[in-house]
Structure formats: C-alpha cells, structure tokens
Amino acid sequence: MLTEWLLDGNLQDPHHEFFIAADSSVPNERMWHDKYTLRKCMLPSFISLKQAQKVLATGKSLNFLRHVCNFKSAIGDRDLIQTAVGKTSVESLFNQNESNQLDDLISLTFHSSSSHVLEEILSRHKLLEHLTALRKYILLGQGDFIHYLMEILAPELSKPASSLHSHNLSFILETAISASNVQYEEADILKRLDVRLLECSPGETGWDVFSLDYHVDGPIGTVFTEDCMRQYLMLFNSLWKAKHMECILSATWKQQAATSKLCRDLPELGDALHCIQLLLTEMIHLVQQMAYYMTFEVLECSWHTLTSNLTMAQSLDDVIEAHAQFLKRIVSGALLDEDSREIRTHLRILYDLMVRLENLQEKLYYAVVNELNARKTAHKDLKDQSETGNARSDSELKEREEMRRINFSSKFVSDFRSELFILKESYQDMVQSFLLMLAQNEDENLHLLSTRLDFNEHYHRKDHRLNLRLTYLHKRKIIVWIHFKHFEAFATFVKGTSINSTYIIKYI
C-alpha cells in the first residue's frame, strides 16, 4: 500500500487500515487542502509523524499533477524511485536505527514529486506572474492605471450604488486598460481582471460598492483559495478608499486655491480661508503618510519576504504557507485584523471628516461665486442709475446692497465659521485619539507612523498622554515591565527546585 501511494498516488484501502484517508466527495478544486488526511490513530510505530507527513505530501502531489494539472506523462524520476523501492527491504521498516533505507526512500519520493509540482505551478501555470498581477491591480501597485481608472470612473461612481451596472463599469475598465501600460500584459492575465459590485445599502454611492476582481481557477486556485480572494477584496476596498481620499483632497486643494483668488475682495472670509488651508494641509499630510506606510512598510516589505520564501520553497505546502503569511502580514499592516478594529474605526471617521471638508469647501466656493456675481450686478445697476440721474433710486439700491452684504457677513460667514470650527475640532480630536492608539500598539511600525504623522509635535502639545508615550522614561518603564514578566516566568520555572535565591538575584 505504501509503495502504490508513493509511486502512483493510488490508495486502495477498503478496510481503512492505512494511515492516509481519502474523501471522495471533495472536488478537485479543494483536493490539496481537504481530500487526503492523516489518520494518526492508524500510524504505525515504525513511521514517525514527520515521515508520515512526507508520505502524505508525496501522494497528494502525484494526484495533484494528474487530476488538477492534467499532467498526462509519467514523472521522469519514476524509474529511479521504483529502483529505490526494490532495494528497500521490509526489515528496514522496523530497524530504522540501523538502516536509513526507508527514510531515504520517503525523502527521495517526496522531493521528486514536490519538485514536479513546483515546476508545474511556478513555470507552466505562472504563479509568480499571477501574484504580480494581484499586487499591481488588486493591491493598486500599477499607479498610472489606477489613477486613470479612478479619474474616468469618478462620474459613474458618484451616482447612487443602486443605479450602477456591471457592464458599464467593465467598458470603463477596458478603456483604462487600453490607455495605460496594462495593455501590454499577457492575455491570460487581462481576461482574469474584472469589476465587481458589492451588495449595496441605502444611501451608499458607487465608491462604496465598486471593486476590481481577479478570477482564479485551475492549479493556481489551490494557492488563491476563496478565503485568500476575500482577503484580497477586503484589502482592495481599504486601499481604494485611501486612494479616493487622495483624489478628494487633491480636488479640494485645487478648488480652495481658486476660492482664495476670488476672495481678494471679500476680506471677511480671510480667517475662514486660512483655517481651511491649515486643516486641508493636515489632512493631506495624514493621507500621504498613510500611503507611504502602506506602500513601503507593509506591501513592499511583505512582498520581499514572500519572494524570498518562494525561492526557498520545497513543496506546494511551503508556497501556500508563504502566501498565507504574506496575506496575514498585509492584512494586519493595513489595520484590517481583529486587533485593529478600533484604529480602523477611527481612520474611517477621519475619512468621513475629509469628505465633509470637501463639501464645506464646495459650499464656500459657490457662495463666493454667487456673492461676487451679486456685487457685480449691484455695481452695474448703480452705474446705470447714476447715468439716468435718479438720486432716490440710487440711494435705495445702495441701501439694499448694503443690507444684502451685511446679511451675507452676519448669516453665511458666521454659520460657515461655526461649521468649520466644529469640523476642525472634531478632526483634531480624532487625530489625537488615532495617534495615541498607534503609539500604544505593539507594532513598532505603527509607533513610527505615529511619529511621522506628528513630526512637529503639533498634537503632542495638546495631549500629555502622547508626550508620555514617547519619553525615554516611559519606554524604560515598558522595558522594566517586560523584564519583570521574564523574571516571573523564570521564578515559576525554578519554584520547587534546588536553585537558591542568590542565583535568582544574579539573574535579575
């Protein structure tokens, strides 16, 4: 039974005596993960768990090649393996301390079948190319494509989510592909790239439900499982939201610059414009630093680790584990794991406040344009009245215009300042809480992010807890606490032993 499994992946076990079990109901798409399992209760005493795992992986690899990769020809090393099986005696099963025949046979078959699987999935099915495509499009690594796609999608995604149609978005996607370097990608990758609309809730726009999708099937589906693709989708939504904020703030900055030029004749709006400029600069700084953190400290570092692990992989299980660790790191770094729920909530609120600033700036722009047009019209009417020589009408026009301007200053300008002040205070309070959460997190990269977000200590001066977190004394307290925890573990270990107190003091 062992020979048939190692040579051909055949499992004939009608009485369930073998230590490998098969579930015939599992489809080929889940063959590697679910079809074959170890039955540890049936493991013979002369086969170790490590050897059994290699035996399991060997037969799985042969079946994977045959049923998933459609590998028809025989493995090139089969004759060599069959010769090795013929030279392995039955006695070697029970005398492994004296003979390495069985261990050598298991290692030979494992490495042979695993190398064929790796060659199939990495070379023929181009796993690395698909990983790169996911990085470029789902993780927004292809800058020119993502920027242009967002630009031409903006009018469509600004509509209510319920009014969107996938075929319209697919056409826009094709336009973005043909207008960027993505057009030079391989045809197999381009046909997998698609759009996807998430379930929408009342009040949501297209920005909330739009997503890029990447279809996977065949052998690469063994690595890119449904759970993995859900994580990619979650990462895309987070990165897309951050990129959308960049576009919003960029457009707000342009409109704010235009508004500043228009307000040269409206000095009553000077302090409000200055406040918007400062608040907008704070928001731009936060978004840029978050983008830097995600791009270089999370994605690039994780990608480097992934490629290094893939070059050292000896089996498909190593590839799957390397990819799973890659996803785990970037999900955690993107603040999408369970431990970062509160930080993530604060970040979303900050994004909402950025949208509110965009609305306020747009409101100010149209109010300024209307006010300037009204003043221009009033000036023209006064000029016309002066030419006709009607002094009474001229006086009435001046009085009416003066009242209108007073109403503008007392009503609109006052209300606008109040809204802006509330927005500013809300944003800065949320940033202070956000920085404090980052500084108290166990991840050192988040500590550095907190420092960069407040590089000039603007927020530290408002919250003494932030100052305390970054002082040398506070860090020393943390180090002492860690050492104390180590001592507690050591004391628990030596409790009840003959180690005397002098040795413990030296340890401290």
TrEMBL record:
InterPro entries found in the cross-reference section: GCP, GCP_C, GCP_C_sf, GCP_N
Stretches that traverse the bilayer: none
Lineage, highest ranks first: Eukaryota, Metazoa, Ecdysozoa, Arthropoda, Crustacea
Protein name per Swiss-Prot or TrEMBL: Gamma-tubulin complex component 3
Signal sequence, renumbered to the chain: none
Family: Belongs to the TUBGCP family.
Any single Gene Ontology cellular-component annotation: gamma-tubulin complex
Chief location category: cytoplasm
Localization (cell): Cytoplasm, Cytoskeleton
Residue ranges constituting the Gamma tubulin complex component protein N-terminal domain according to the UniProt record: 1-119
Gamma tubulin complex component C-terminal domain mapped to chain residues: 127-459
Example GO molecular function: gamma-tubulin binding
GO biological process: cytoplasmic microtubule organization; meiotic cell cycle; microtubule nucleation; mitotic cell cycle; spindle assembly
Gene3D superfamilies the record matches: Gamma-tubulin complex, C-terminal domain
Entry keyword set: Cytoplasm, Cytoskeleton, Microtubule
PANTHER family named in the record: GAMMA TUBULIN COMPLEX PROTEIN (PTHR19302), GAMMA-TUBULIN COMPLEX COMPONENT 3 (PTHR19302:SF14)
Region feature Disordered, mapped onto this chain: 379-398
